[in-house]
Design goal:
With 325 residues, the chain is mainly beta. It contains three helices and 24 strands. The protein has one domain: Neuraminidase (6 Propeller), CATH 2.120.10. Helices cover 6% and strands 43% of the residues. The strands form five sheets. Strands 8, 9, 10, 11, 12 and 13 form a six-stranded mixed sheet that branches. Strands 1-21-20-19-18 form a five-stranded mixed sheet. The N and C termini lie far apart (47 Å).
Length: 325
Amino acid sequence: MTARLNLTLVAATAVIQLLLGAGGAQAGSAYDSKSKPARPPVFTDFGNPEMVQILGYDDNEGNSNDAMEPFISRDGNFLFFNNLNTGTTANPTNLFWATRKDDVTFQYQGEIGGEANSSGSLDAVPSMDSNGNFYFITTRSYGDVGTPGYLSTIYSGPFAAGTATPVNPVPGAAAPKPGLVNFDEEISADGNTLYFTQGNFNFFGTLTSTTMMVATLQGGNFVVDPNSAKIMKTINDKYLNYAADTSADELEFFFTRTNLKVGPAIYMATRKSTSKPFGAPKKIDAITGFAEAPSISPDDLSLYYHVKNPSGVFVINRVTRTVKP
């Protein structure tokens, strides 16, 4: 079981691409419905999609290198991202950073230094709280039976001057058993709440279902909130849901939902209080194409995400709104 999972422990995008590339849901999955999906309710406040330029990393059309899983730091000064989600030793997925010049222009600074990019296969899906605590997904220790990193894929460490070190498994965030994999995490702005997706992989390494979860910091460990299922009731449905992102006040929740018949789309849901469940999610209508991995800006007016361009390269885009509802 573990050996097979190590081959499939990649960020969600790669898994979804494989499933979609196979012509729809794989046999035995939960997504074999033959009915034509109804058009979901939409959210129309965001508009004006445009490409984000990472100077020194891509060209004006975004055709140099793949840029995926964007995260805008809570002060707006940094863009974190990873390259293509291949997750192999020959073509590793690594973490990068860039500094802000304006809302759609960042200056590439290189790979994140220190211990972040040390797994040799996959280090991806960056996020960071307001205190500079950097979180990411890594495959380095999931199969290390008898070690503190066993079944752990969510790591963290302090970020400073382009370096994250030391990094360690996030206490309490390991999967409960082999076959379950925690991925696509995001830490809240205050550092007290961890949002992530738990994927269920079968013996053959096929992702069969996902559950988005909420954990809170208690005594130095993250503990799944006893109300997690209730909070995420409208988010978790029969489709694949992943790539959580929250506004600083945690009242807006952005994520990716994939219907394997039509591909991924970015949704959002809102709530009136952090003690309440999220309301029914709606698709962000202005975001089209193969789009995933949202990240809201500190002022809540720009939503960044990655999308596959006409050349087949993943680039970072953003959509905007004039005021937060």
